[in-house]
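sorry for the late reply, my laptop died twice this morning and i had to redo everyting from scratch. anyway the thing you sent over, i finally got around to it. pasting the sequence first so we're on the same page, its 392 residues, then the predicted structure underneath. double check i copied it right bc i was rushing
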Amino acid sequence: MPGMAFMILKISLLLDICMYFHLVLTDNCNLCCKYCRGKAFEDLEVSDGERTMVIDENLPVDLDFEIPLLYEFLKKDPAVTLTFYGGEPLLRADLIEQIVRESPVKRFMMQTNGLLLDRLPTEIVNRFTTLLVSLDGGRELTDANRGSNVYDRVMENIRKIRANGYTGELIARMTVTEDTDIVNTVRYLASNPDYSFSSIHWQIDANFTRDFALRRFTGWANRNYNPGIRTLVRSWVDHMETSGEVLRWYPFLDPMEDLLLEKTSRLRCGSGYANYSIMTDGHIGPCPIMIGMSRYYVGHISTTHPLELAQVPVSGECTDCHIRDFCGGRCLYSNITMPWGKDERQQVCGTVENLHDALLEALPRVKMLLDKGTISLGDFSHEKFNGCEIIP
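ok and here's the structure:
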């Protein structure tokens, strides 16, 4: 495979990790968010890397293989975690219920927009260890991005599942754009008493199309996002000091734990070595957004052992970056497709450097709080590869 050094190894023996799989149930979605499918209606230039990508146009829209085949594949790994993914996975709530009831898997997660959570029986919802629910902040911002009345409908479902006994991790997963005031939005999600979220994650819409010329990204990053991240890191540590609680803000939580342990990291999402995706036809890809990129498939559930998958490493400029061990390469998809020009890439990577520097600056304070016993190292413990990309 040109330009990619693939390594096949027994992952369970050589890596101290468990295996995670995203199962793509459908490519359909019940929303048309302006930063996602809404861009399909815009005339946007694509990069040379994206233009040369071969996409399997025959990939089924919905899951199109015998479910027992999936069970046979998954049972070969007794510690596997399965994450339901789409599109919107709850459009196939029937399959979710069937797989949760029948499969040999003990740990389930799901990424959802939350609108259809009421389609699942309570006993099925309560089987999930983690639910990631897309919410971009308060009512005004969420509805502007995702559609009228989405915020209220999602929050009603969140209240219902908590009232019905859901005790797993509930992650508010934001997409942040130039319309996002990062400080106010994160603080709102963290402090609003109407929320039952235990964790927050966010991902920058630097998007994977060449649309920077249409955007206000540079000004927003320099004037709002980057200084806002530094403000939030200070607030995060202030909260540790005053309350003894480490808030589960994933872009801070995971990297800070590694800084404390003096550990380096590969891609923090696990793509290409620990966190793979099962396509609707049963092929296995290295990343859930690399749908149909057949050149990078590493096997099929009918013929491949889950613990002997080929790895797809980060390559190119990222391998020589001075914060590679912190960032891990940010995104496998963008590493392969190279959607940004040089200046655009510097802007995106600049936000990662800013995050790195802000956390490094806070590290002595966090160590002091550990030494005083205000917090413990265990407070930073969390589920790895739970659908949070970590590096925004």
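Residues 342-372 form the longest helix (31 residues).
thats about all i looked at so far, will dig more tmrw
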